[in-house]
Design brief:
The structure holds 2 protein chains of 2 kinds.
Chain A lengths: L5 H9 L11 E10 L4 H5 L5 E9 L4 E4 L8 H8 L7 H6 L6 H15 L3 H4 L6 E8 L12 H13 L4 E5 L5 H15 L4 E5 L15 H13 L4 E3 L9 H8 L3 E4 L7 H8 L5 E2 L9 H12 L15 H11 L3 E7 L5 H4 L14 E3 L2 E3 L12 H7 L4
Parallel strand pairs in A: 4-5, 4-10, 5-6, 6-7, 7-8, 8-9
Antiparallel strand pairs in A: 1-2, 2-3, 4-12, 11-12
Chain B lengths: L4 H6 L13 E10 L13 E9 L4 E4 L5 H12 L7 H19 L1 H15 L3 H4 L6 E8 L12 H13 L4 E5 L5 H15 L4 E5 L11 H13 L4 E3 L8 H9 L3 E4 L6 H9 L5 E2 L9 H14 L13 H9 L6 E6 L4 H4 L14 E2 L2 E3 L12 H7 L3
Parallel strand pairs in B: 4-5, 4-10, 5-6, 6-7, 7-8, 8-9
Antiparallel strand pairs in B: 1-2, 2-3, 4-12, 11-12
Helix pairs in contact in B: 2-3, 3-4, 6-7, 7-8, 10-11, 11-12
């Protein structure tokens, strides 16, 4: 056993010591909506007035926020999982049930960052402090966008380009699959070569409009067509649980084949890396399991030299997604879904009322620039949350 | 910035303050040499390398892992001084690109010190910032006995007596070398140890064949494993060449004891090759050799996706500080190796107490506890570091 002589013992006992770190416990969790009065005509064109709020309260006197919220009725079950627990045990919280409620994990990270007085992306590797934005546009009307003239899509691309953004994604859902290739042609002609165009088939989603998952031949034809007009990627051309066909297509064509937003937890990403399913992995900031999960997916992908680009979201929710993107050093961050002809700052303008800052995110030359504020980087105004809170 | 009392009172208490980027202002690496109390013993460590990262936030990060002066002067200082302390991943990738694996392997002292500074600035243990999985790690003691390197002059009974000493002090496991010239002798040693220590204590064997000249042929390894199995050993480490991905996999599939390895792996690619080829039942990255705490966490996550435990290779003395933070942030790391012997761990690091204001770790029931201090958790005595500093 360890022996100290008397002098050493006394010296150790009287030396002023570093203060011990106090444990931080989660004391409360709340879900509610904040509704910012917005003119009806604005709401009709797609401006976002309503926000879901997550508050994670701690015994350190700090509250963490996220805007990836859930119905208030879900809160009691989640409280049983996290209230009374160590704030920092994020891996445990995720395993115990937050995997499916990652908006709460976002708020926990916000609290961790606020207590540390540091932006969370810096605590998770801090790979970058800028990420290029691309805007995913879905026009009001038919889900398959068959009513949208190619010219409107080209006009929106030019509008986005003029606002400084570097890329746009649209659906590849038109009933005649090659029509989307023609749309790409028209967009490319309008934007010129220095703009990226992405297409999203969204796997099973077109079943909602009576379509089937593409067969390989269709996927191949569309991919070759898009390639010709120098589109950047084709997203989820086949089923989400099909690890082989996307990889077959990726090996056959030059355009990038991407996917991954449908996976929950680490296993689907592991399998798609093992099968070389996708050229780029796209974990979802909330639905895939959270900020830490996205960071971990990037660790798996790094060992195979596969890029990770997060699936996106909109407005105040985006703070958690951006945190993961900065931590990973991703090339792009999606902003979705944008309702043309709105630009992001127009669509999320009412959300500013919930902040103390003049802007939600700093956007420079089409890039999000990381905030130096602690936590997820939003200067949330608790007074405004109280003012706009919707009584449940 | 000066704030009048009135302004200060008017500011809402919860208002967020923007953080100025914390910049690295200097990096240095030197040695401290300590007087050792009592009789000299081979594993009582008197000299420690110290690597320090200074910042413009007034906080200094410290690790007890060396960084060679050559890379310090030619890469670390010119690249990192003036840059962001927190951008560990960016710095690591740049190092990988500009200096390759060998650079990654030797800069770890700097990486650990950066995390110490980050944790001190955040006011939290580093493990908590990386997902906070556990607050203690079960210790296994690797004992290299005084005498010949291959331990052929060490009586089995000496090894057995040490196992009993460990068990009586609350420890759960011991690892010894499997280097004796006649391979089955080590299996016999395990038999003697097992009889002395009882059934619950874990015994591991390390062939260390990642170093050239130590590679067994497959039949020898199989025979040793069967012998070890009979005495209920836990694992056999690195029976084959470190670049041989297939022989360990073949052995692991054939025998019941675990086959482990990977301590010399440096990049995530190395570990993905081990994992994809099912080379080892347990992978053992070394947070000094693989480039630091952050890359060790990456490797652990990779192993997690394959469902493989990641039990870190160890170290001795104060260098362990970063290992313990990394291990406590891993979902699949149950043990921490502490290398030394034939003393107990806390005897081994006794001289280092002069560098600290309190003992570095508490060991309870064979578990080493994550310190409840910020950063890497060492409460440094700055005066002592000055006093004992050598070149």
């Amino acid at each position: 056993m360890l022996k100290l002589n008397r002098r050493e013992w006394l010296a150790a006992a009287v030396a002023p010591a570093m203060a011990a770190v106090k444990p931080v416990k989660i004391t409360g969790l709340e879900f509610y909506d904040a509704d910012i009065p917005t003119p009806k005509d604005q709401l009709e064109v797609g401006v976002q007035g309503r926000y879901t709020v997550v508050e994670v309260q701690t015994d350190a006197g700090v509250t963490g926020y996220s805007f990836a919220g859930y119905p208030a009725a879900q809160a009691p079950a989640l409280r049983r999982i996290i209230v009374g627990q160590d704030l920092y045990a994020v891996e445990d919280h995720v395993r115990n049930g937050l995997l499916k409620f990652a908006g709460v994990e976002h708020a926990i990270w916000d609290a961790i960052g606020r207590i540390a007085r540091q932006p969370v992306y810096k605590l998770l590797g801090g790979a970058s402090n800028r990420v290029r934005a691309y805007l995913t546009c879905v026009w009001k009307g038919k889900l398959d966008q068959s009513h949208v003239p190619y010219g409107d899509q080209a006009d929106m691309a030019v509008r986005i380009q003029k606002a400084g953004f570097k890329g746009m994604k649209i659906r590849a859902w038109r009933p005649n699959a090659l029509d989307d290739v023609d749309a790409c042609n028209e967009i490319r002609a309008a934007t010129g070569p220095d703009f990226d165009i992405m297409f999203d088939r969204t796997a099973h989603a077109p079943e909602a409009v009576g379509q089937k998952i593409w067969d390989y031949e269709t996927g191949w034809k569309v991919a070759r067509g898009l390639e010709k007009h120098r589109a950047l990627w084709l997203e989820e051309p086949f089923a989400r649980d099909d690890y082989r066909t996307p990889g077959r297509l990726a090996a056959a064509v030059d355009i990038l084949i991407t996917g991954g937003e449908g996976f929950l937890g680490i296993e689907g990403f592991h399998q798609s890396l093992q099968h070389r399913t996708y050229d780029v992995l796209q974990p979802e900031g909330e639905r895939s399991g959270g900020i830490l999960l996205c960071r971990k997916v990037a660790m798996l992908a790094e060992a195979r030299n596969v890029p990770v680009i997060l699936h996106g979201t909109m407005a105040l929710r985006l703070a958690g997604w951006l945190t993961a993107s900065f931590a990973i050093g991703s090339e792009w961050q999606e902003v979705a879904l944008l309702t043309p002809p709105l630009l992001p700052q127009q669509q999320w303008a009412p959300g500013l009322k919930l902040l103390r800052s003049k802007e939600m995110y700093r956007i420079e030359d089409g890039h999000f620039v990381a905030s130096d504020l602690p936590g997820l980087g939003l200067d949330v105004n608790p007074d405004a949350l109280r003012e706009y809170r919707v009584p449940s | 910035m000066s704030i009048s009392r009135r302004t200060l009172l008017a500011a809402p208490v919860t208002a967020l303050a923007a953080q100025n980027r914390v910049r690295i202002t200097g990096v240095e690496s030197f040695t401290v040499r300590l007087p050792a109390p009592g009789t000299p013993s081979p594993d009582v460590q008197r000299a420690y390398p110290v690597t320090r990262v200074h910042t413009d936030a007034g906080v200094t990060g410290t690790s007890f892992i060396a960084c060679p002066q050559e890379i310090l002067r030619s890469w670390v200082v010119p690249t990192l001084v003036g840059d962001d302390l927190f951008a560990v991943d960016r710095h690591l990738r740049r190092l990988q690109m500009e200096r390759g694996e060998s650079g990654v392997q030797i800069w770890s002292g700097v990486e650990h010190a950066m995390w110490d500074a980050i944790g001190r600035l955040a006011g939290r243990p580093v493990a908590q910032l990386l997902g906070g999985v556990r607050d203690r790690l079960r210790v296994y003691r690797t004992c290299v006995f005084p005498g010949k390197q291959d331990q052929s002059d060490v009586p089995y009974e000496t090894q057995a007596a040490y196992a009993v000493k460990l068990r009586n002090a609350g420890y759960h496991a011991m690892k010894i070398r499997a280097w004796r010239p006649r391979p089955m002798d080590d299996a016999d040693a395990v038999g003697v140890i097992r009889r002395a220590v009882g059934p619950a204590f874990k015994i591991m064997l390390d062939r260390t064949a990642v170093r050239p000249g130590w590679v067994w042929d497959y039949p020898t390894a199989l025979k040793v494993c069967r012998g070890l199995e009979r005495h209920n050993a836990y694992w056999l480490e690195e029976p084959f060449d470190g670049n041989d991905l297939e022989s360990p996999a073949r052995l692991a599939a054939e025998v019941d004891i675990s086959i482990t390895g990977g301590e010399l792996g440096k990049t995530p690619f190395h570990f993905n090759n081990f994992l994809k080829n099912k080379t080892y039942d347990i992978i053992q990255p070394d947070t000094r050799i693989c480039g630091g705490i952050w890359p060790a966490k990456k490797i652990s996550v990779l192993a997690e996706s394959y469902g493989v435990p990641c039990i870190q290779h160890g170290n001795s003395g104060l260098a362990l500080a970063g290992y313990i933070q990394a291990g406590c942030a891993m979902t699949n790391c149950e043990w921490q190796e502490i290398i030394g012997g034939p003393n107990l761990p806390d005897e081994q690091w006794a001289p280092a107490l002069k560098l600290l204001k309190r003992p570095p770790w508490r060991i309870e029931n064979g578990y080493i506890l994550l310190p409840d201090l910020p950063g890497l958790g060492l409460d440094l005595n700055e005066d002592a570091i000055k006093e004992y500093r050598r070149a």
